[in-house]
Amino acid sequence: MRSIWALAGKDLTVTRRSPTFLAITVLVPLIFVGLYALLVQVSATSPVAIAQEGTGPHSQRMVQVLRDMSSVDGEFFEIRTTDPDEARRMFDDGEIGAVLTIPADFDQRVEAGRPVAVPLQVFNINSDGTKNFQLRAEHAVRQFAADGGGSLATVKETSAFSEDMRITVYLGTGLLMFAILYASMVNTGTLVAREWEERTAKPLVLSPVGNAPFVLGKWLAAAVQTVVSMVGVLLGLAWLLDYPVSSLGWNSLLAMIVLFAYGAGFGALIGVALRKSLPMIPICVVLAVTHFFVSGYESYLRGFAHGGAVEGLWQATHWAPMGLLTDQMRFEVSGLKTVSLDWSAMGWTLAAAATLTTLAVVRMRRALSFSQGQ
Amino acid sequence: MNSVSTTPLPPATLKDAAVEVKGVNVVFHRRGSEPYQAVTNLSFTIPQGTVFCLLGPNGSGKTTTINVLNGLLRPTGGDVRVSGLDPTRDRRELLRRIALVPQETALYNELTGAENLEFHAKYYGVAPREVRDRIAHVLELVGLTDRATHRTGTYSGGMQRRLALARALLTDPEVLFLDEPTLGVDVQSRQAIWERIEQLADEGKTVLLTTNYMEEADALGREVHIIDHGATVAHGTQAELKAMVQGSRVVLEFAAPERADRARAVLDAVSPTTVPSEGSLSIAVPRGVETVAFLRQVLDEINAVGGVTGFRFSEPSLQDVFLHFTGRALRD
C-alpha cells in the first residue's frame, strides 16, 4: 500500500510542478462545452421582428402569443421590435432571420371571420433554421386560433417521460461523459507514457513490489487529477450551459466512477503502446468524441440514421453500456425518478475497463523486456 | 574483422560466486525480420565483493546481458544465477537483493534529489523509520547533501549519475548492476563515481558494470570480460588480458593532429594503429618481428610526413587487447 501512495504522491507532485497535460484535460472539454453552448442558444431561440401594422386588440393578442411561445429550453422567438419600419430595416441589415407581418386589416378580418394571412419573410440560408421559423409561425397561428375559440385542430401529444428534458441537460450530460472519458484517458495515459518518455520506467518495474502498485498507483494519481479536471469542467458546464450541477447525485457519481475506470483502462493501454505523451492528446480527443456521438449524443446520430452504415451504427448505440450510463446521469439530473441504477451497464463497462487494463499490463511487461537499451 | 580468439572459460562454479552465467544465448524474434542473436554463448562468474567489468562497444549486448541478470529478459538458452537465485523463477526475491543503475539516470527532473530518493525508498519498501537516515547516508556517500533540496533537472550529468548511484544504494543491495555509470560525465565526476564504486567493493558488495570506456575498465575492473556482437572476445584480470597481447607499442607524438592523421594513413599498412590522444599515434610492434628492423621501417615511413616531436614505448592497454582480438578499435 505504501508503494501505491508513494507512486501516486510522486505523480501528483510532478503534475503540480508541470501541469500542462492536466490543463489540457480541462481546456479541451471546456472548448466543446463553449461551442455547444453557443449552438444551443442559436438553436433554441430565433431572433425575429414583428411588423405590427394592425393596432387593434386581436393584433395585440397575436403579438402576445408570439411573445409567450416557449419550451423548457427557452422562448421560441426573441422579438427585437414590433415597429414595422425598424423590423424591415433589421431584416434588410441581416440583424434578424425573419419578419412576421401582422397586416393593417388583421383586426377587421378576424372580427368579420374572414381569412387572414400573416406574411412570413425568411432569410432562408439554412433549411433547418427556415423550418424552425415556419413551424413556430404556424404554431403561433394555431395557438391564436385556439385561444380565440377558433375551430383549428390541435395536436395531442404523448411523451416517453413525464417531463421534457432540456437540451442543455441532454447535451450537457453527453459532454460530461465526454469530459470524464477524455480526462481519464489523458491523465492515465500521460502518467504511464511519461515513465517511458522520461526513461524512468525501468526502476519501477524492477521493484520487488511487483506490477500491482504500479497500476494502482497510476490509477490513484489519475483519479485525483481527473477529479481536478472535472471540477473545472463542471464549473464550465454550469456557467456556459446553465447545467444543473447540484442535481448530480449518487447515481451520477457511480456512473462517473465507472466511466473513469473505463477511460483509465483505455488511457493506460494507449500510454503503454505509444510511450509518448503528445500523440495521446489527439488520439484521446478522437476516441472521446466518438464515444460522445455514439453514447452521449445518440439523438444527433439518430437524425442521420436513415439506412446504410449510419443506421447500423445508431442501432449499435443501444448496446453500448456507456450510453446507458450517460442516461443514468441524465435522468437523475432531470429529476426523472422513473429510471434508476443500471447495474448491467455498469458491470459491462467495468468488464471492458478490466480487459483494457489487463492488456495494458501485458503490453507493459513486453515493452520493458525489449527496451532498446533502456 | 579478424577471427575472434576463443579463450578458456572461467571456472564453472565458484563457491562464493555472486553471479554465474553459463552458456547464455538471447535471440530476439521480431515480426517481419530475421531473428537477431543479441548474446551468444556467454559465460562468466563474478566472485562476491569484486568489481567486474563487461566491456564492449555500443550494441555489443551489454544491456541485454544486464536485463537477463535482473530478470527482465528470459534467456533463450543457458543458465543464470544471481546471489544463488534464478532471475526468472525467483524474480521477486532476487529484486530484493540487487539494484540497478540504468544507462539513463531515470530521475524525475521535477523532483528534488531528496524527493527522488524518498519516492524510491518508499516504492521499494524501505521501512518507514529508516527512510530518512538512509537518504541522508547515501546522499553523503555520493557527496550531494548540499544539493539535496534542488530539483534534479538543475543537476549536471555527473551529479545525476551520482544521485542514481545513491538511489541504488538505498536498499542496501548485495549485487549492483551499473549500466555505463559514467556515460557523458565530466572527468571530475567520473573520478568521484569510480571512488564510490571501489569503496562499495571494499565493503563486500559485488559490482557488475558495463562500459565502453577502456580507461574505466582499466581503473575499476578487477576482472574484465570483453564482448563484441554478443559474444565473448576475451576475459580475465587486467594483467592476464594484457599479457595476451605480447609485445609493446610505440607511441609517436606529432606537432599537429593533421600530421598524425597523415602518418596514420601511411602506418596502418605496416601495423594497426590507434589514437591515444589528439596529435599522437600508437602502433603495435607485432609479435615475432625483429624490433629494430620494424622500428626502422616505421621511421622510414613517417620520415616523409615529418613533424614528430616525441617517441616512446608503451605497455599494452585494454584498447590494445580489444584491437588485438577484434582487429578494430573499440569505438570504430
Automatic annotation (TrEMBL), chain A:
Domain ABC-2 type transporter transmembrane: 20-360
Record localization: Cell membrane
Keyword presence, Transmembrane helix: yes
Main location: membrane
Molecular function GO terms recorded: ABC-type transporter activity
Alphabetized InterPro entries for the sequence: ABC-2_transporter_component, ABC2_TM
GO cellular component: plasma membrane
Segments traversing the membrane: 21-39, 167-193, 214-241, 253-273, 343-362
Membrane protein topology class: Multi-pass membrane protein
Keyword annotations from UniProtKB, A to Z: Cell membrane, Membrane, Transmembrane, Transmembrane helix
Listed PANTHER family: MEMBRANE COMPONENT OF ABC TRANSPORTER YHHJ-RELATED, MULTIDRUG ABC TRANSPORTER PERMEASE YBHS-RELATED
The protein's name: ABC transporter permease
Organism of origin: Streptomyces cupreus
Lineage: Bacteria, Bacillati, Actinomycetota, Actinomycetes, Kitasatosporales
TrEMBL record, chain B:
Membrane topology, from the record: Peripheral membrane protein
Example of a GO MF term: ATP binding
SUPFAM superfamilies: P-loop containing nucleoside triphosphate hydrolases
Positions of the ABC transporter domain: 21-254
Keyword line: Antibiotic resistance, ATP-binding, Nucleotide-binding, Transport
ATP-binding in keyword set: yes
Subcellular location: Cell membrane
GO cellular component: a single term: plasma membrane
UniProt xrefs under Pfam families: ABC_tran
Keyword Transmembrane among record annotations: no
A single GO BP: response to antibiotic
PROSITE patterns assigned: ABC_TRANSPORTER_1 (PS00211), ABC_TRANSPORTER_2 (PS50893)
InterPro entries from the UniProt entry: AAA+_ATPase (IPR003593), ABC_transporter-like_ATP-bd (IPR003439), ABC_transporter-like_CS (IPR017871), ABC_transporter_ATP-binding (IPR050763), P-loop_NTPase (IPR027417)
Recorded family membership: Belongs to the ABC transporter superfamily.
PANTHER family: ABC TRANSPORTER ATP-BINDING PROTEIN (PTHR42711), ABC TRANSPORTER ATP-BINDING PROTEIN NATA (PTHR42711:SF5)
Protein name from the UniProt record: ATP-binding cassette domain-containing protein
